[in-house]
Structures are given as structure tokens and as C-alpha cells.
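Following up on my earlier thread - several people asked me to post the actual chain instead of describing it. Fair enough. Here it is, all 223 residues.
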Amino acid sequence: MAEVEELLDEVTVRMPSGAELRARGRRRTVRRRAALVAAAVAVTGGALATAALARGGEGGRDIRPAATPTKNPFLVDGMVRLLPPERMPADGKWQWTGDDEETTENHPLPRVGGRDSCPASYAARSAPDQIQYGAEYSSDKGATARQRVTSYDSGAVARREAALLEEALTECGLQRHGKGTAGYWSGTTESSSWLRVEVERWGKWVSVVEVEAEEPAREGASS
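Reply from S.P.:
Thanks for posting it. Predicted structure:
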């Protein structure tokens, strides 16, 4: 300690009073609390921003997750989205042709496939009010692809109509494969054609995508 004593020689060292030490301690405590609050705010803000992006909020991109989407997947900039031929199922096999302008009649659900495919689903019924958009494509390999996007007055009506459609699919002899948005129905119809159907509902909207192939063309068309 001799070297330290030499350094301190002729240097006046003033120890702070007890009151000053307590004041310094209080100031450090206040600064520490302020830092912790700022850190908590930053973490919370980051979490909220991440959640907003995940929902497709401001600055985010609308996506269709496995869970229920938060925005109507059938409307893009206020326009009803009809799938173009290259987005229809198995376009690589069937090479669909046509355009995505509305070309189908305003048929109420639960009509399935062509009129000869599942006749029972074409039975007359008192259908609810609806607005329907549709497109139909063809393949020179003996198949047809259709999409119907229907809007109802409420989500309850849409849910009921989708349930009726699924009942009709079962009565038609089709079986369900997969779950969620990846699920679909397929099987042989009464007219011996092969039919594949995808049903998706969001709020008061129901989308039905069908692919129907003639008997000679159905081999290898199960996906």
C-alpha cells in the first residue's frame, strides 16, 4: 500500500456524507427502473408489431395460414377471385384451357358435378338468397374443371349450405381425404365419371372447386 499512499500524498480526499450517498443511491434506483420500463416497452412493441404482421396488418402481406384467415381469401382489392386455369387442381395433367371470366349459371348448392353425376343433388329446393361467381375450364383429355364462389346473407347460412353440400358429396359416393384447407373429396359418381371436389368456407362465403373426368381418363387422376 506504500505506492498508493505516495500517490495520495498531498491530495485532499473528501468522503461524501451519508445524505449524499443515500441521494446517489436513489438516483441509481430511478435510472435502473426507467431502463427496465423502457426495455419492457420495447419488447411489448416488438411483439405487437410481429403480431400485426402475422395478421397481415399494415405493412404485412395477406396470407392464408392453416388457421382461419383474418381477411376474406375470395376477394382481392374488392374483386371476387376466380382461379385461373393454371391454378386449378392437376393442371400439369389436364392442361386446362379457357379464361377466368364468369361462365357458369347461378346454381345453388349443393349441386355436385354434372347433372348426371349426382342427380339427387340437383333436386329442386328453396335455396337462400345468394350471389354466385363461377368459371369453367376444359381439357382435351376428357375432363372439366369448375369453380363456384358463393356469397350469402350471413355466416350461419353459408355454414348450413356447406354442410348440405358435404352431405350431397357423401350421398354421391365420394370420400373425404386429408384435413383443413388441404382436404378434398373424390370418388366415382353415378354416371361412372371420376369427381374431385374441394370445399372452403370463410364467413358468409363458400368456394367449391370441382374436377370431373370421364371414365377412360380417370386413371391416375386421384390427386
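Strands lie at 75-76, 79-80, 130-139, 143-152, 175-177, 184-188, 194-202, 205-213. That should answer part of your original question.
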